[in-house]
Amino acid sequence: MATAWDYAPAPEARDIVRIQERYGLFIGGKFVEPLSGERYTTIDPAREEPLSEVAQANKADVNRAVKAARGAFEGSWSKLRPSERAKYLFRIARILQERSREFAVLESLNGGKPIRESRDVDVPLAAAHFFYYAGWADKLEYAFPNRRPRPIGVAGQIIPWNFPLLMLAWKIAPALAAGNTVVLKPAETTPLTALLFCDVLRQAELPPGVVNIVTGDGRTGAEIVAHPGVDKIAFTGSTEVGKAIQRTLAGTGKRLTLELGGKAANIVFDDAPLDQAVEGIINGIYFNQGHVCCAGSRLFVQESIYEATIAKLKRRMRTLRVGDPLDKNTDVGAINSKQQLEKIASLVQSGVEEGAEIYQPPCKLPERGYWFVPTVFTNVAQSYRIAQEEIFGPVLSVLTFRTPDEAIEKANNTPYGLSAGVWTEKGSRILAMAQRLRAGVVWANTYNRFDPASPFGGYKESGFGREGGRHGLEAYVALDDA
Ligand code: NAP
Ligand code: MG
């Protein structure tokens, strides 16, 4: 659609960020050369330009990191007064706030997400998680009444590329609050904010070895999982890798939490405030390019309002601005990697071939970089791949329903169960739906809202264990009877 006027570019300055030419591994409180001797290039997916060379940690490197974490656990961290642990976490939270612009710019550069989102969502939420868990550090006995919580030991943590700093915060904050030490691996494509976070740890004077960051690809993750010195694995990523990890750990006695994929239902009833619902649909699927495990990727619209909803949705899609992640006007940024772009394109192709009707608003994409136009499919059958499989991109599949029972049955007809949305004026209907939806999080008249005090996690193939809130501490403590 030709708009009456265009937005002038409003690029965020990137000179606040100083990216090093190369990085080592952060082990024992300092950067060390990888024993593997290997590095790989990490890029800016919006420009296909190299940003830095980062280390590919191998078995020996992981071993060194686990030893550092074990030493710190036994030597200092687990013995520290809980109120002292809290001080470090408060410090980290405050430094993240002070350096928030730097983190936001780097997150958008390395991952492709719009600066508006990294600035207003990722970084503030990451700081909020450290604040929140800092508050629990010296109150663990209140979190677990009549039990005596103690730390588990060394936590191996493996995170994905869609919310690099935020996932790091979700993992590290509760682990440290409960007195554990950490070896964390960021995703291969988005290591830079985790490496900048090491500088925050140095600023906060966190004792060496309490947090160790090892970069690398899936092989590095597999070494962490297999290492006998790790007491607990926390993994966020694909269901496929999650299943492989569970197989590896079976019988080892290591603890495991898995946060995996999703194919959430966003359900709109005919009494919903429609304009508000359309905003929620847009936010549900196009936020962070749809690289969101809890994305509202299946839209269920009640039949009586189908035409009106789709018309409004398409009109709203035409106003989405796709492009430079560092431009403050951008709504939809770059796809995180070439590999992910290919996956999205092939699933969209399958939707066309299976007979769904595709709509993409007119949109001029930058010449370089990885991009995908926001897409909606109508005429979707439940059996189509685009209704079953997680696309992890800006692609929405629309289905319809007549009654609440039908909505529940269709919404729950998926191997996943991470999240869902319900749009209706009726409070009683919200409660009834929330009770019957097999999803860890159910949003009502909103979508993709996060708060550190609220637990997050899945049913079925979306994984087990909860992150956030008091529930999020449970994964990091052993409980003795008081
Ligand atoms: P992924 O391939 O499973 O990767 C997740 C992490 O595991 C990455 O750090 C990855 O390294 C590492 N890894 C890969 N193979 C491994 C192995 N064999 N052993 C141990 N670690 C291994 O997932 P992704 O493609 O990065 O992320 C997208 C998926 O994550 C989606 O399915 C999404 O739904 C899910 N996700 C879930 C949540 C949640 O909270 N439930 C949140 C975000 C994302 P590399 O980076 O080198 O591959
Ligand atoms: Mg992967």
Structural commentary:
This protein has 482 residues and is of the alpha/beta class. It folds into 2 domains: 267 residues, Aldehyde Dehydrogenase, Chain A, domain 1, CATH 3.40.605.10; 185 residues, Aldehyde Dehydrogenase, Chain A, domain 2 (3-Layer(aba) Sandwich), CATH 3.40.309. Helix content is 39%, strand content 18%. A 7-stranded mixed beta sheet has the order 13-14-15-12-11-16-17, sandwiched between helices. It has a 6-stranded mixed beta sheet with strand order 8-7-6-9-10-18, with helices on both faces. A two-stranded antiparallel sheet has the order 1-2. α3 crosses α4 and α10 packs across α11. It is globular, with a radius of gyration of 22 Å. The relative contact order is 0.14. The model has no long low-confidence stretch (mean pLDDT 97). NADP nicotinamide-adenine-dinucleotide phosphate binds next to α8 and α9.
How do you describe this structure in short?
The protein is built from 16 helices and 19 strands. The chain is of the alpha/beta class and 482 residues long.
The profile of the biggest β sheet is: 7 strands, mixed
First-last Cα distance: 66 Å
Give the tally of β-strands. 19
- How would you classify the helix and strand content by structural class? alpha/beta
Helix content: 25-40%
Low-pLDDT residue spans: none
Layout of helices and strands:
Layout (H helix, E strand, L loop, with lengths): L24 E3 L2 E3 L6 E6 L4 E7 L3 H17 L6 H17 L1 H12 L3 H22 L3 H4 L3 E5 L2 E5 L5 H14 L3 E5 L6 H12 L7 E3 L4 H9 L5 E5 L2 H11 L5 E5 L5 E4 L5 H13 L11 E5 L3 H12 L20 H17 L2 E3 L15 E4 L6 H4 L6 E7 L2 H8 L7 E5 L3 H10 L4 E4 L18 E2 L6 H4 L2 E5 L1
Parallel strand pairs: 6-7, 6-9, 7-8, 9-10, 11-12, 11-16, 12-15, 14-15, 16-17
Antiparallel strand pairs: 1-2, 3-4, 5-19, 10-18, 13-14
This protein binds NADP nicotinamide-adenine-dinucleotide phosphate and magnesium ion.
NADP nicotinamide-adenine-dinucleotide phosphate binds next to helix 8 and helix 9.
